[in-house]
Model the fold of this input.
Amino acid sequence: AICGHGCKYGECTGPNKCKCFPGFTGKTCSQDLNECGLKPRPCEHRCMNTHGSYKCYCLNGYMLMPDGTCASSRTCAMVNCQYGCEEVKGEVQCLCPSGGLQLGRDRRTCIDIDECSSSKAVCPYNRRCVNTFGSYYCKCQLGYELKYISDHYDCVDVNECVTNTHRCNLHAECLNTKGSFKCKCKQGYQGSGFNCA
Done:
């Protein structure tokens, strides 16, 4: 099967038909599915949408259970946690709904960890890290696009000369380069390639 536009977070199942991976939607599976907006709601109390997934958390005074439900806890109510809590050996600890969040100085509210600047993020060499609240994702470097090639996704150079996204002068030739392009004035013209006279 060939999908001309590609299936960003999914697989090509028929002529221009994409089957999206869980957590993604759209004709080319390029959009994040907001699970928090689904009916029935996936979380009992509060829901936080993340890139390709979601996290559940509870209102103050409730504890998040392993199945995503919220159980009442008088001890939790006294601690006043932002995202619910758990009791460990009789001690109450506030929780953060994602590994990309950490407890702040007050030990009650959660603050974002910037994985991109703290080197916790691991992105392939040709991708750049984009921090999100509670997580991160890897995006192709500028001049590259994500394509499904021989059973896996890879960042492939965009040929700006073919896609006509270059800004070369009418009297210049476009030359594709890795991740970018160059413009060279045609014979009989001189200039930068963006301006030829």
